[in-house]
Amino acid sequence: MTLQTTSPIFLGMPSFQKAAKDALRNTQQRRNLAHATSTIRAKRAAVVGEVDRWEELRVAGADAKDEVLHHLPHYLEQLEANLVANGATVHWARDADEANRIVLDLVRATGSDEVVKVKSMATQEIELNERLEEAGIHAWETDLAELIVQLGHDRPSHILVPAIHRNRAEIREIFRREMGGVGRPAPDDLTDEPARLAEAARAHLREKFLRARVAISGANFAIADTGTLVVVESEGNGRMCLTLPETLISVVGVEKVLPTFADLGTFLQLLPRSSTGERMNPYTSMWTGVREGDGPQDVHVVLLDNGRSHVLADDLGRQALRCIRCSACLNVCPVYERAGGHAYGSVYPGPIGAVLNPQLRGTGSDVDKSLPYASSLCGACFEACPVRIDIPSLLVHLRTQVVDEASGRSPEALSMKAAAWMFADHRRLEAAQRGATLGSRLLGDRTVRSLPGLGAWTQARDVPSPPPETFRQWWARTHGYDVEEAP
Could you tell me the keywords of this UniProt record (predicted)? Predict the structure, then answer.
């Protein structure tokens, strides 16, 4: 039985402000988010506090990523050469369509009609599951949180914990309602105890692991000088996908490259502390091409651009490509905690999504135009980021771009043009002043609450009432002659 996804495409969503307003009405989701993010924040603070030279680690991580971003073609070519030398096949994908076509062709070549998947944001970004389902190939998510989202016909709400907006009772109902339609059903006596829910997921997935011939993964890191791909996880499902199937296809964003294997040590300290609040990940899997008799014998790596070159071209904006998808910025953001991830209209929610999405996709849609404004600019995201991405500065930078692109069309821009035209000639200014005094007489003592086209801006501000007379009129009345005639 095919597991269908009924949720709308993210890009079809309204602006962040409208979506967030709707999300705020979901009080259960707000309680779930507040509990989860506060718990993760406390765990992170404890393990980060144990590291005496945490700031030096952050600087080292940022420097390693910047080294790659400033010499990306060199490191990508080095990565490709080492992958090929170790028996892997490398494919280059300019965009989502090309990446999906490559993966679809590779799966079809095996004759398989299903794949098991390691949690991968890159494949969610390109909507790979949907494309595979359209072609009659079932894509089974094996990460527990991703399984919950998939079975619930839902969308991810968090980078690290996609089902963070669900509580245990909701998850129990999803498992009981949906599991039997796509595999082994949940036990009749299933409770909402975490151990029982995990047991039900394990039994449901085991049959899929054992029969799968193809697995699809992403990668947390790709080491240029060895050709090694790295996946870190907490449950062991990734290890099952990376070792049991005959064919392994990894879709990897080009920004995931690290220069040397030695650099990995820095990130294996930064990532688990920043993401799950752990000193190290329970499972760290590495593979370098093909090893006869050990693991998949047909290994493919799809290196994905999909807008990353556009981000790279922006001297300030490229620092967003340092992101290691830890979600620390989400867990400290007061806006995310209240609105949740769905309001951001992308697989990348929270502060990093607010800067990454408009750069990857452009600002052609309402949601991408609105994302740079999905922040209070409090700066907590920068303090939490393990690779020192200055998200507040990037938000201001992107706000400028949005305004510049709308130049001449927004109410503010039209108002400024009208003001410039008026101030360019004293006769126009005097006429406008006389008109303002007429408005004052018509309004009387009433306060102006809003202006046409600027309602949102004036909702929180009282516009001063126009004066009953201009300075020129006051001067003529009190001194008996016009100001221009004064000595």
Answer: 4Fe-4S, Electron transport, Iron, Iron-sulfur, Metal-binding, Repeat, Transport
Q: Dihedrals φ, ψ of 183, to 5°?
A: 160, -150
Phi, psi torsion values for 255, nearest 5 degrees: -80, -5
Label the pairing between strands 214-217 and 257-258.
Answer: unpaired
Sign of CA dihedral 357, 233, 218, 388: positive
Query: Are the CB atoms for 109 and 122 separated by under 8 Å?
Result: no
Q: What six digits make up the tokens of 304?
A: 């994905």
Using the predicted structure, report yes or no on whether residue 358 has a pLDDT greater than 90: yes
CATH topology for the 28-310 domain: Rossmann fold (3.40.50)
Distance separating alpha carbons of residues 403 and 198, to the nearest angstrom: 48
What spatial distance separates the first Cα and last Cα of the chain, rounded to whole Å?
93
- Is the separation of the CB atoms in 381 and 392 below 8 Å? yes
pTM: 0.82
Query: Which residues touch 211 (CB under 8 Å, ≥6 apart)?
Result: none
Give residue 359's region: left, alpha or beta (phi > 0; psi -120 to 50): alpha
**CA dihedral over 318, 322, 326, 330, signed as positive or negative:** negative
d(CA 57, CA 424): 56
Phi-psi region of 101 (alpha: psi -120 to 50; beta: other; left: phi over 0): alpha
Q: Which residue reads 């890191």 in tokens?
A: 221
Q: Hey, where are the domains in the chain?
A: 28-310, 427-485
Confidence check: pLDDT of 350 > 90? yes
CA distances from 48 to 110, 279, 336, 378, 467 (A): 45, 9, 22, 21, 58
Alpha helices in 2-155 (DSSP H): 16-24, 27-48, 54-70, 72-85, 96-110, 121-125, 128-134, 144-151
Q: Is residue 230 within 8 Å of residue 284, measured between CB atoms?
A: yes
Distance CA 254, CA 157 (A): 24
**What is the DSSP pairing of strand 228-233 with strand 221-223?**
antiparallel
Helix axes 194-211, 168-182, angle to 10 degrees: 30
Query: What is the per-residue pLDDT across 103-135, written as a single tens digit (0 to 9) for each?
Result: 999 999 999 999 999 999 999 999 999 999 999
* Contacts for 87 with CB less than 8 Å, ≥ 6 apart: 289, 290, 299
Q: Considering only residues 256 and 452, tell me which one the structure prediction assigns the higher pLDDT.
A: 256
CB contact at 8 A, 386 and 274: yes
